[in-house]
């Protein structure tokens, strides 16, 4: 499923995702977005599961009115069917079952209905947003992915900019004529860096450029595994 649309003319577009139920980190990132004067954005998925405040995280994202793509944990939570109460996994904070029980039915339906991709145009440039490798989240797209593989992927998708999440690692690469961006994670850090990360796109006379940014506060939890 694909959702489409156009970004505001001459706009900068905020990129954020992998919130993982960390509402405090999300509030800090959104404050940074506002401080940059950016009013529109997209969310790369994984909104609720694994953090301590999934309901607030979902509410904050929904209130933005921005396009959101589904991540792998959104699929798990959106499907419902929690384990029985009393099961060790059911009572663990941040688990799938614990998260499901802290969201309304409407919030779970919203997560379940999120599209796999969002396509939009930014000053005439085609931008595709997806949580991970389009069509296969088991394939990791990161700094170790070969340039030729990225260029081939972007060409097959017919996009100028490919925005991804999933790895929690900020990334900015050029592959062929395409720009590949991962804004990193709002709610979960890696490599002991607990600063929430985000990014933005900016269209100018020379095309689209991307900027990576972090909130200078250790508000993200450390990603397990």
Q: What layout of secondary structure does this protein have?
A:
Blueprint: E1 2-6, E2 12-16, H1 23-35, E3 41-43, H2 54-64, H3 72-78, H4 88-91, H5 96-100, H6 105-112, E4 117-122, E5 125-130, H7 147-157, E6 161-163, E7 171-175, E8 178-182, E9 188-189, E10 197-204, E11 207-214, E12 221-222
Parallel strand pairs: 1-4, 2-3, 5-6, 6-8, 9-12
Antiparallel strand pairs: 2-10, 4-5, 7-8, 10-11
Helix pairs in contact: 1-2, 3-6
How many beta-strand segments? 12
Strand content: 25-35%
Number of domains: 1
Cα-atom radius of gyration: 17 Å
CATH topology: Purple Acid Phosphatase, chain A, domain 2
Please state how the strands of the largest beta sheet are arranged side by side: 1-4-5-6-8-7
- What do we call the CATH homologous superfamily? Metallo-dependent phosphatases
Level of helix content? 25-40%
List the secondary-structure elements in sequence, H or E. Answer: EEHEHHHHHEEHEEEEEEE
CATH class: Alpha Beta
Question: Termini separation (Å)?
Answer: 30 Å
What would you call the structural class? alpha/beta
Question: Overall 3D geometry?
Answer: globular
**Low-confidence spans: pLDDT under 50, at least 5 residues?**
none
* Known CATH architecture: 4-Layer Sandwich
* Largest sheet: number of strands, sense, barrel closure: 6 strands, mixed
């Amino acid at each position: 499923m694909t959702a489409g649309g156009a970004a505001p003319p001459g706009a900068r577009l905020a990129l954020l995702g992998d919130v993982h139920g960390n509402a405090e980190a999300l509030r800090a990132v959104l404050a940074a977005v506002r401080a940059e004067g950016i009013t529109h954005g997209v969310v790369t998925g994984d909104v609720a599961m694994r953090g301590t405040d999934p309901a607030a995280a979902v509410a904050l994202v929904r209130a933005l009115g921005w396009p959101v793509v589904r991540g792998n944990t959104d699929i798990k939570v959106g499907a419902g069917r929690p384990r029985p109460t009393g099961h060790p996994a059911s009572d663990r904070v941040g688990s799938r079952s614990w998260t499901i029980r802290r969201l309304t039915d409407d919030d779970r339906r919203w997560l379940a209905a999120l599209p796999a991709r969002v396509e939009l145009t930014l000053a005439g440039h085609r931008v595709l947003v997806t949580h991970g490798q389009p069509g296969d989240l088991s394939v990791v797209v990161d700094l170790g992915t070969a340039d030729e593989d990225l260029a081939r992927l972007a060409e097959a998708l017919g996009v100028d900019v490919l925005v991804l999440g999933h790895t929690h690692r900020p990334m900015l690469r050029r592959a062929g004529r395409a720009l590949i961006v991962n804004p990193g994670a709002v709610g979960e850090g890696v490599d002991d860096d607990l600063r929430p990360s985000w990014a933005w796109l900016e269209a100018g006379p020379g095309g689209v450029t991307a900027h990576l940014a972090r909130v200078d506060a250790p508000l993200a939890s450390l990603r397990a595994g």
